[in-house]
Every structure is written in structure tokens, then in C-alpha cells.
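Re: the 340-residue chain
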Amino acid sequence: MKKVLLAAMLLFCLCSLGAASLFSDDEGPGLSYSGSFLSFNTRTDYFRLRYRMIALGALADIWNAAAVFDTYAFSWKNHWKGEGRSFSGAALSFDQAAFFWASEPFYGPGVSINLYGLQMSVAYVGRRKTKDYLLMNHWERAQPHSLLLRLTYSNEYFLLGGKLSHSSQTGSDFLIQAGLSYKGLSLIYTRGSEANVYDVSRRVQRAFYIALDSQRLSFRFSLEYLNDPVRAGDFRQIEAWHEAAFEFWDRIKLTAGQKSISDSTGGWKTSRAVKLEVRNVTIGLEDGEYEISIALSPVTVSIGSEGFSFAYAVSQDRFSLSIKLYSSGRIDSSFSFEFA
């Protein structure tokens, strides 16, 4: 009985501050909440707490803190690539400065100060358990501890910066960045390397990034040169992707994208996707597989390479339910209930 009362009190408090939702799908039930102070999702273990300048939990949205750890992804505040890795901890965040302590997936303190466009960041990543496999690049081993120094000047049109990483195990790494932006067109060039604080096996060494944003057209292009071919039989790895979206008369939208990765034989593996939306009709093509769907609310009929499906979805003010039946016999269902 006490647990029921505690749960009821918790839901009451959450509902009075923001939107709490109970949801369930094929992966099981979950509880999510989104408010101005607190946000969490039990399915993804996401947790975020904000009160004035105090921040707890997920810190990737605090730009001053995120850029010093993952410079390649957070190249420019106005043009984040969207692939930045997340980290958690605690921070004091102000308009011109941030003081933070990271706890996951690494730990250590840091500070970042921004004065008239000049951003100075310093962070320390503490000692962790390292890998010791026989065939590894030296940078693939998680550094026992690393010191990160980042200095960048940027404004609406211009970006120039550098980053120095020093680890007691792998030595020093240096990275430089330059960027230009004018009337929605942005160009960013990054070269060098940084400490492997996230313990990943993918190391970017040189990257080009282009972004274009206008009223009817958006475009993204990225070209990255990855790990050095130091092992026998290795090849230089290159990864390129681009995506574009066009809108016509607010009724027609065309989206296209392609991603190419060089494989171990020196060849390329390419994935392509195209989607055309005309009012309630959507035509999609991805790697030779097609799908055509017609949405006649609340029913959506889809026909594709793997058969056909029927979906029924209904949404009220606080309740939503969807059921999808496939010609193969599979059934997907989900529901959510918003308490406020």
C-alpha cells in the first residue's frame, strides 16, 4: 500500500510540473517525463535535471562542456553534426562559463569560459581500466588519464580553433579547426586527432563538413578520413554521407540521402534512401527495397518489397494507441497515456 501511495504522490507531483507519460510497446512498458526542470525516460535510462544554473544527469546539451570532449562532432555551436556522444555528470552553467564534473562514461572535472567569442576549455579525464589486446592501435587503448585543452574563436561568420590532448600512455594529440558561414551556407574543416576518452575504435583524422539551410532546401555533407592503416592488410578508411530535403508548395517534400564506407578490401559499401511525400501519400526507396503508404486517418495502408501492412492509430488529448498488422503475421502495438 505504501508503494502505491508513493507512486501516486510521485505522479501527482510530476503532473503538476510537466507532462508524464506511461507507454508500452513491443519492448515492454516504460515511464517518461518531460518538464522544464526534470526529464527522464525509464526505457533509455535518460535523466536530466535543471534548476537555474545547476545541471545534473545528461550534459551533452551544455555546449561549453560537450565540445571539449568530442570536438569532431561539436565543431560549431550553430551546426552540430548530430552524432555527438553523450556523457553525464554535474555542472554549473552560466551564459559565459560552465564548471562541470563528468561521471559517465568517464570521470573528471572541467571548466569552460567564453569571452567575446573566445572560448577556453580545460578538462581532465581520470584513470580507468585499459584494454590490452595483442593487435591494437595505441590510441584504441583507453587512456589512464588525459588532459584536454581547447581554444576557439567563433562568431556568426567565422570559426578558428585548436585542441591539445595529452595522455600519459599515448602522448600528445593536436587538432585544428576552421570554418566559414554566410547566409545559411557553412563550411567546416577539421584535421588532427584527440584523446580517446570515449574508448572507441573509430578515430577521425580529417573531416570536411558542409551545411546549407534555406526556406525550401536543406543539405548536409560530411567526408571523414578515419583510422591509419598500420596493421597488415589494413586500408585507409573513409566515410562519406550526405542528405538533402526539398519542399515545394508546402505539399510536396523530397528527401534523399547516401552513406558510403570503405571496407577492408579497399572497396565501398553504399547505402541510399529516397522518400517522396505528396500530401497523404509517401513513396520510399532504400537499398533496393521500396514502400508505398497511403494515410487515410486513422488507417494507414502500406505496400512494400516485404509485403503489405495495415496500421490503425488513434490519438486523444492524453491517450494514443497504434496497432500494425503485417502480411507476414507479425503484429506491432503501442500505447501511451499522458497524465498531464
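The radius of gyration is 24 Å.
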